[in-house]
Design brief:
75% helix; mainly alpha; 468 residues; Amino acid/polyamine transporter I; 18 helices
């Protein structure tokens, strides 16, 4: 076993690393964020800009963060400190704060996913804890208002996350993702087949894939770019230190260039599958594609309720895959949070303190999750930074500010000042780097430009400044 009680850990295999890296990317960002943002931003137009961003920015940042982690052999904060001679230490700190805030509200949504899985399972067996006979919106609002139950499911979700992370890199994170990712993909394909064969599903397919760029008129393209960029950062785990941490566990024989291509392709494939699972069903039942975050928990549950006897079965499978997807990402978020503290202790000559830090930060993020649950989506706490609820406030700080700033400064530093550092690491041990010219051009010119526009768009969107 590669896991070492007294030393730094590593992946057991490249396949295990890939499953974990893809798992960190595939989560609620794909199954919750991508479909509703796609629905609210013109469908095809959103997908088009998202793909452009993934090619010219996402791929570049994935390789950059993986190479940074492997070159330094350290997690977020010490990696940025070591690679920049201390100049970018604050960027590492930004990237460490982001997953801490995200996990605070992610655990809340993950808890809801468990609740919906249990409720649909209850309907299969005609139990009294199901959702049958209750409108999807009503069921969701009842759960939001039931603070003790929301807190309970948040705690359950985080307890599973803590358990997996505490077991270590190859014995916990890698083993879990080797099971979870294939299972998630199979479940998603089952739901896609059912969704796309519903009467009237063609409207959803046209919405997703029929070219329509009317939302780009005027400055509308910046709004769509902002939404697609924010989704890309969240979905691909960029600017939050996860890939730096996972890269630090890679061996020199693993090809970063190849892995850097596989990860965004797999993540985008799952995101498109999620849209195919949701949008045809939404159009089939005459629902609103731009329904916002409620699309996952209100609109879709109403769809399942309308399917008759088969509804609870497909509802159970769908929300089970949402739970698996959420857990693969929450595990990576907690790992990114604690890894810098583990490395700090190892540098000081201490034994591996993984379990201690997993429990400490697991409990701290649990406190965040409980706070989000108590707020009940804006019902019980005052406004923070002008946001409607504490969930959006956490999201603003992490996804709207810290992550794009971290990514922007990373591209500037490694694209203009220390431009040979990461290509040298990517080519370590004789690995081919066939896209080096493309990488150097993008990290110097295109990636900084795109990340800067995403940052402006995120700030404009969160604070409703009306710039565009």
């Amino acid at each position: 076993m590669n896991n070492q009680k007294k030393g730094r850990e590593s992946w057991g295999s490249n396949f295990g690393f890939l499953m974990a890296a893809i798992g960190s990317a595939v989560g609620l960002g794909n199954l919750w964020g991508f479909p509703y943002k796609c629905g609210a931003n013109g469908g095809f137009a959103f997908i088009l800009l998202y793909l452009v961003l993934v090619v010219f920015t996402g791929y570049i940042l994935i390789m950059t963060e993986l190479a940074l982690g492997r070159a330094t052999g350290q997690s977020i904060i010490p990696a940025y400190k070591k690679a920049s001679d201390g100049k970018l230490t604050f960027v590492g700190i930004f990237s460490a704060i982001a997953p801490f805030l995200i996990l605070g509200f992610y655990s809340y949504l993950g808890g809801y996913s468990i609740k919906y899985t249990v409720a649909n399972l209850g309907d299969i067996f005609n139990a009294n804890w199901g959702v049958k006979g209750v409108d999807g919106s009503e069921f969701f609002l009842n759960l939001v208002g039931n603070i003790p139950e929301s807190i309970l499911y948040t705690i359950i979700f985080l307890a599973i996350t803590i358990f997996v992370v505490a077991r270590g890199v190859d014995s916990g994170i890698e083993v879990f993702n080797k099971f979870a990712m294939p299972a998630l993909t199979i479940l998603l394909i089952i739901v896609v087949i059912r969704s796309c064969t519903l009467p009237g599903a063609g409207g959803g397919l046209s919405f997703l894939f029929k070219p329509d760029l009317t939302v780009f008129k005027g400055s509308g393209w910046i709004t769509v770019l902002s939404a697609a960029g924010g989704q890309m950062f969240f979905s691909l785990s960029l600017g939050m230190g996860i890939l730096v941490t996972y890269g630090s566990y890679m061996s020199k024989s693993e090809n970063i260039s190849v892995n850097g291509i596989v990860i965004p392709i797999a993540d985008t494939f799952i995101a498109l599958l999620a849209s195919l699972a949701i949008m045809p069903a939404v159009f089939s039942f005459g629902m609103e594609p731009g329904a916002g975050p409620g699309l996952l928990f209100m609109t879709l549950q109403s769809v399942f309720n309308s399917m008759g006897v088969a509804g609870p079965i497909f509802g159970f499978f769908f929300y089970l895959l949402v739970v698996l997807a959420a857990l693969t990402s929450s595990v990576s978020l907690l790992e990114a949070i604690i890894s810098s503290f583990i490395d700090r202790d190892l540098i000081k000559g201490k034994a591996n303190t993984r379990i201690k830090w997993a429990v400490i930060f697991g409990l701290l993020t649990m406190a965040e999750g409980i706070l989000v649950a108590y707020d009940a989506l804006g019902s019980n706490l005052p406004l923070v930074f002008g946001q409607p609820d504490i969930l959006d406030a956490f999201d603003l700080i992490a996804e709207g500010i810290l992550m794009p700033i971290a990514a922007f400064l990373t591209t500037i530093y490694f694209g203009w000042f220390k431009k040979d550092f990461l290509p040298a690491e990517i080519k370590a041990d004789g690995s081919a780097f066939k896209t080096e010219g493309f990488y150097r051009f993008c990290i110097k010119f295109l990636a900084p430009l795109f990340t800067f526009f995403v940052l402006l768009g995120q700030i404009n969107s969160f604070f409703q400044l009306g710039w565009f």
